[in-house]
């Protein structure tokens, strides 16, 4: 009987140190596999990609403000048997980046009662429209295109930000799933071992080798482990459901993670995170330069700066000049060699207007400046929050690394106590109660070690997330 108890205890010790689980790699799920699946198939990731597509469509729309425009005016009036006029005048207008508009067209104007300001017969013109004050340095078309380019890049940044948060949530669920699975497996092994122990004690009782109280002691131990096993199995299943919420198939259907899929046996091997940057100074520098949330503020401030320049135009008077060079016939350049631009064959117009109080312009300009100030303050606050978050995760990481070392030592000490209790038992100086008590402490130490290791890896991914690198 002593030899059997010692064998059972040694077997328990093996499971306490590291449950030896035979696994098929096809039935395991690693952290990097979860990240790949979430990136590829999660609806939120696809929605972020759609936002990028919408920003590209907005950019195409903004470029439309600089598309050449072809138009035509056709009119005819006949009344009381009199042909007043027939007019056909197609025109093409070409906007340019600097606010100028180049236009050219032809006219054919005939009839018996014509407007004397119009040129009778066939004529052509080529000219330019120039804003001399308002809209000279910035106008709505240029502002829209510049902002659309910024928002297109901003969409990529926001996609990174969305994925960064989504992947961190997935990692939270994954490491909780890993922790509950290993806790459950540890307790399942202890239930099996204690069931064997109970069977042996009952036989010993029948043979008169043990007291009846020993069966109660062994049964109480078994029932305690069975209770914990049932509780941990429910927690493992629930953790699997939480993780399944992040797993989708290629055809866009949710995937329910079966219990046959388990974490890998080497889940606590730090080599899986060997490519991660864990240096505090490096992470703080990277965050300052490339964190998507800070970059988003940069792009928003650039867009607001363009809006500020556009609003400033409302403080300027509107002074537009239009000039056309005229030619007979349909050749718009036929008379160009004959006369300078203000000598003959020309038409020009000048329009000037300005609000007397500029109330709308002053209000819009001030509001934009306040938006910029607000965004700058928000960016400063966000930069500080990210730095604090990185330092917190790094502190947790360093502390957990030390805690794991201490817990490993603590576990080793408890295992030595178990072995010492075995020796005392062989010498008749101990009992099953004391061995069970020692084993319980060792199991609790192993459970705590599993929990600490899961938190440690979660902190590693959290550190990458806080620096904006998880995506």
TrEMBL record:
Pfam families (alphabetical): OEP
Keywords attached to this entry: Cell outer membrane, Coiled coil, Membrane, Transmembrane, Transmembrane beta strand, Transport
**Please, which domain of life does this record's source organism belong to?**
Bacteria
Subcellular localization = Cell outer membrane
GO CC terms in record: cell outer membrane; efflux pump complex
Q: What is its main location?
A: membrane
Ranges in coiled-coil conformation: 383-410
Gene Ontology MF: a single term: porin activity
Q: Which Gene3D superfamilies match?
A: Outer membrane efflux proteins (OEP)
What the entry lists under InterPro entries is as follows: OMP_efflux, TolC-like
Q: Spell out the family assignment given in the record's similarity comment.
A: Belongs to the outer membrane factor (OMF) (TC 1.B.17) family.
Q: What name goes with this protein? A: Outer membrane protein TolC
Originating organism: Dyadobacter psychrophilus
């Amino acid at each position: 009987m002593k030899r059997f108890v010692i064998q059972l205890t040694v077997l328990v010790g093996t499971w306490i140190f590291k449950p030896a689980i035979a696994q098929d790699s096809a039935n395991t799920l690693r952290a990097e596999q979860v990240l790949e699946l979430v990136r590829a198939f999660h609806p939120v990731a696809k929605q972020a990609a759609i936002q990028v597509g919408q920003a590209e469509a907005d950019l195409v729309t903004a470029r439309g403000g600089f598309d050449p425009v072809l138009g035509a005016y056709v009119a005819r009036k006949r009344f009381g048997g009199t042909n007043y006029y027939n007019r056909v005048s197609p025109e093409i207008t070409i906007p340019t980046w600097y606010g100028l508009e180049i236009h050219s067209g032809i006219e054919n104007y005939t009839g018996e009662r014509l407007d004397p300001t119009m040129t009778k017969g066939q004529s052509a013109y080529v000219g330019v429209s120039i804003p001399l004050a308002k809209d000279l340095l910035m106008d709505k078309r240029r502002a829209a295109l510049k902002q659309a380019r910024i928002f297109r890049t901003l969409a990529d940044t926001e996609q990174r930000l969305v994925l960064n948060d989504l992947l961190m949530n997935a990692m939270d669920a994954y490491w909780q799933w890993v922790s509950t699975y290993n806790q459950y497996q540890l307790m399942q092994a202890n239930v099996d071992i204690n069931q064997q122990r109970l069977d042996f004690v009952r036989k010993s009782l029948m043979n008169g080798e043990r007291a009846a109280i020993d069966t109660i002691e062994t049964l109480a131990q078994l029932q305690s482990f069975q209770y914990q096993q049932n509780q941990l199995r429910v927690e493992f299943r629930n953790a699997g459901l939480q993780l399944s919420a992040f797993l989708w198939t290629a055809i866009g259907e949710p995937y329910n993670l079966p219990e046959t899929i388990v974490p890998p046996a080497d889940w606590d091997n730090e080599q899986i995170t060997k490519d991660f940057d864990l240096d505090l100074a490096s992470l703080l520098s990277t965050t300052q330069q490339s964190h998507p949330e800070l970059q988003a503020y940069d792009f928003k401030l650039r867009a607001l700066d363009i809006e500020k320049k556009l609003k400033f135009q409302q403080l300027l008077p509107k002074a537009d000049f239009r000039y056309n060079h005229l030619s007979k016939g349909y050749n718009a350049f036929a008379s160009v060699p004959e006369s300078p631009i203000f000598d003959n064959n020309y038409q020009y117009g000048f329009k000037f207007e300005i609000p007397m109080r500029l109330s709308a312009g002053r209000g819009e300009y001030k509001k934009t400046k306040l938006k910029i100030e607000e965004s700058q303050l928000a960016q400063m606050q966000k930069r500080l929050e990210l730095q604090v978050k990185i330092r917190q995760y790094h502190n947790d990481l360093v502390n957990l690394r030390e805690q794991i070392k201490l817990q490993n030592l603590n576990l080793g000490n408890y295992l030595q106590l178990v072995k010492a209790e075995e020796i005392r038992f062989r010498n008749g100086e101990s009992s099953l109660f004391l061995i069970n008590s020692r084993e319980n402490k060792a199991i609790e130490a192993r459970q705590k070690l599993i929990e600490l290791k899961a938190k440690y890896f979660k902190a590693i991914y959290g550190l990458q997330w806080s620096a904006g690198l998880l995506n």
